[in-house]
Amino acid sequence: MTHWIIAPVVLPAFIAALMVLALRGHLGLQRIASLAAILALNAIALALLWSATQNGPEAYFLGDWPAPFGIVLVLDRLSALMVALLAFLALITALYAIGSGWDAKGAHFHPLLHFLLMGVAGAFLTGDAFNLFVFFEVLLIASYGLMIHGGGDRRTRAGIQYIAFNLVGSSLFLIALALLYGVTGTLNMADLAMKLPTLPEGDAALLRVAAVMLILVFAIKGALVPLQFWLPGTYANAPGVVAALFAIMTKVGAYATLRFTILVFPTDLPATGTLIPAFLLPAALVTLAIGALGILGATTLPRLAAFAAIASMGTAFLAIAHMTPEGTSAALYYILHSTLATALIFLVADLVSRRRAHLDLTSPAPVAQNGLIASLFLAAAVALAGMPPLSGFIGKLLILDAWRDQAFAIWPAVLVSSFLMLLGLARAGSLLFWKPSETGAPADPAPHEPLALTATFALLAGLVLLTLAAGPVTGWLDATAASLHDPAAYIAANRLKVAP
Amino acid sequence: MEALLASAIGLLTAVGIYLMLRLRTFPVILGLTFLSYAVNVFIFVSGRLAVNAAPIVGTIDTPADPLPQALVLTAIVISFGMTAVIMIMAIGGHLQAGHDRIDLDEDQA
To answer: How far is CA B50 from CA A471, B39, B54, B63, in A?
Structure first.
């Protein structure tokens, strides 16, 4: 499988370049190439997932330079899982973009989509901290283009804020990396994991600063309070299909936090100890509260969806902050669930936007295809609030179970915020679909877009599948979490030379 | 030399943060640029300061660390590209909106 590890990075890069250079202006051909490449990416991701399950962690040495001098990509169960999730979401969003005509509203939707896939896949696969920064920049620069896709004054200005925020994040990331390199002399993650426990005591303070700054950067990406300000403005102003795709980008922050807190800064590391969970936990709780209150107070449907994304990140980080195999497994299940659920609510919001005069929740207007869209919204709301029967319920149950040692503090927070989300979503749903318009005029006829509806239902089917297969999936995730917390195999895959 | 570099980085960062908090896009972009200068110098320093030391093994007894120089090159290229992107976006936003305020709130009420 060795060379296939780099395929999720190389394939989108090649296809994106091909589309920009050779297929410029041919939307039909671009659609075919884009879909074919995403289907291939799905096949590769499944093969990698199978390989990682069978063979354990495996490293790919770029240019055959030995680690830690060269850059390595490391395929393990976690990275394979995230790449597979990315490939599935990419398929849904590509189908939806084609079906809804979003990709025709600007020149380069499909190339940008593939550059984004390249960046996200690279960030999931890389085993080198500086390379992680580079892939973050790749995915960000593609996301800038996607965010302002379709244009418009307000969208462009929201895009400027988004870029400025992320440039500050990149600066922080670089400072943290420089500190890490100055202290340890390496940026390979496995090498860092080996070297940090034997760090001289005098460097511990510098290392703590570096660790906190790194987690801050990931918190910006993961929209953790107090660094979540960029998210509502960005996601609510981005095209709906792009916002759905961005559901995976906040998960990049969660993934990087998981990877670094477990591999590089575990709680038994003397220099950092429980420093990171000590501030991740309150931040996650506040994020959850802000997300729930935001849902309750949102005045437009896209803003409601954006706050739902924030609440789901709060829940995911809550599980990550537990820092045990149990918590990690729960976090992984919730990350799978919330990526799909968040994408679903953004797609539903986009469907509503083309069937209703406006997206305000404050003034009533009729919705075309009311029953169909309302049932999709209901499914998304059930998933987001964590009600049975969908997977959000199982995910929150797993997280509550992981935190049962501190049930007094954590359970009320999760349960009350879920209740607030339920209220907010129910209120939004009844205002959107039940309140008749003041004039009593019927809605404009619905646009005919079977492919977009199919894509939305396929996403819902993914959620249902995740619920039905919860047993095998959690079993597999338990094994993944166990292997993450015992990183010997991951480090061995890097084939580091042990200093004599 | 350490004190000089440290205070230079500090000054660049301070100027960068001050400008970043302004309300118009142009000062914000300038602030981001200052910040990225500070970061670039900081990365360079992470390989320790060395005078008259080429980063090539074998030419001298104590060569300078070559890796931060490679890292800073990457960081410069990326921050240059990002500045270009935000500049174009700022011009686009200015032309479309007729003003260059960075906040979104005034038309939300």
So the answer is: 58, 19, 9, 8
